[in-house]
Amino acid sequence: MKLLLLSNSRSPDGGYLTHAHEAIAEIAGACKQAVFIPFAGVTVEWDDYLHKVQEVFSILGIDVQSAHCVSNPVALLEQAQIIVVGGGNTFNLLKHCRELGLLPVISQRVLAGVPYIGWSAGANLACPSICTTNDMPIVDPKGFDALGLIPFQLNPHYTNASPNGHQGETRDQRIAEYLAANSSQCVLGLPEGDWLRITDSAVQLNGSWPAQLFEAGKAPQTLTSPATLYLDAMRLKPFVR
Amino acid sequence: MKLLLLSNSRSPDGGYLTHAHEAIAEIAGACKQAVFIPFAGVTVEWDDYLHKVQEVFSILGIDVQSAHCVSNPVALLEQAQIIVVGGGNTFNLLKHCRELGLLPVISQRVLAGVPYIGWSAGANLACPSICTTNDMPIVDPKGFDALGLIPFQLNPHYTNASPNGHQGETRDQRIAEYLAANSSQCVLGLPEGDWLRITDSAVQLNGSWPAQLFEAGKAPQTLTSPATLYLDAMRLKPFVR
């Protein structure tokens, strides 16, 4: 399995996916045809979203077709050499993927070795569920279960900072609530600018900022980046060997 | 109908519901028996949550029983003189209310004139859906439709401020996404410290900070507080006359 899961799309310098060029080139290898899933986009036209992504991938010599441009996106995904899932609203993404019947074909293709690249909502979609998204539940996806390509949860755009004076929950409090309701899971808080490169045997944490690992009943653990993480025997939990 | 919907539980001075004492006393009137719904609490024990709320209401001479302490919470709510719904996680709140069959009885009682007091998640529950909550979707409530006691959506803890450098969506962007997917609705962003006192004919906005009204295709409108708002003929939209 080959996954590239990014916290977010913007490089710290403000460039769109510029921090991910090398990682995208590496995971793509010799593959030159990608299928894009734009359904997390809500306030952006999917055509515009596609063009933005095509600009980045064309630099790397990769052609991108979008699932929203064809009458049979399942057939398109069956032929995909690379699957790319963009960020936006995770609920909108999951709703459309479920309604179009895309979840099984994405899983099958990725388990068969097709590289999966996702950022923000696209990283959430790779998790067992979308329960650790930061997004507003603007539409009902009719179930929170997602692709389950990785056995743990991600929290993209991870930070525990709050606007000055904010009295709502901090991010850490939200994740603690998730773990109180889902004690067997664990959550990796992935700060902006970081990403995971995942194979069958290990998880490579990359980017300049430490990630934060949350488990029920334990203090959060800071994971320095870069680092190679492994999965425990239950495959639920990444750890540094 | 008598509703008191607060953005949040903490007064600007840090006291628990202290800013709401007068408003609670006013809506309670001669009623001295309240039923509390603690199910938004996730990392707090419901007994502890009840005690915290009892402390506040006892100052006002109001007895509070909790729905989690009885074998038949529907029967308890059928006898309630006041219904109080606390904040926490909106998904957890809606899930438990749905599973326990509390939504119909709460609606019936409030439509029959029983005062409803809710803060944060408890204010979200009074809306047509929980789609404008800020909370993490830690559990699946099996549908986002809520009590629908008011015809518009609230966004509690409203602020458009973000932590420094944050590249995820701002609150205004999240609300714009909601409106893009739900264009017939409108959303009132209620800043911390503010509250609504709602009757059948009008909505009184209280507290020291302006609220923000969002509609699809329009610039957000700042509503100075305090103000009396009215509902349009379609009852979807509050406005200043």
From TrEMBL, chains A, B:
Protein family according to the UniProt entry: Belongs to the peptidase S51 family.
Keyword Protease: yes
Any single GO CC term annotated in Swiss-Prot or TrEMBL for this entry: cytoplasm
Matches recorded under NCBIfam families: PRK05282.1
UniProt keywords, alphabetically: Cytoplasm, Dipeptidase, Hydrolase, Protease, Serine protease
GO biological process terms on file: proteolysis
Keyword Hydrolase in annotation: yes
Pfam families with a match to the protein in the record: Peptidase_S51
Compartment(s) where it occurs, according to its Swiss-Prot or TrEMBL record: Cytoplasm
Taxonomic lineage: Bacteria, Pseudomonadati, Pseudomonadota, Betaproteobacteria, Burkholderiales
Entry EC number(s): 3.4.13.21
Single GO term (MF): serine-type peptidase activity
Enzyme class: hydrolase
Catalytic activity: Dipeptidase E catalyzes the hydrolysis of dipeptides Asp-|-Xaa. It does not act on peptides with N-terminal Glu, Asn or Gln, nor does it cleave isoaspartyl peptides
Protein name: dipeptidase E
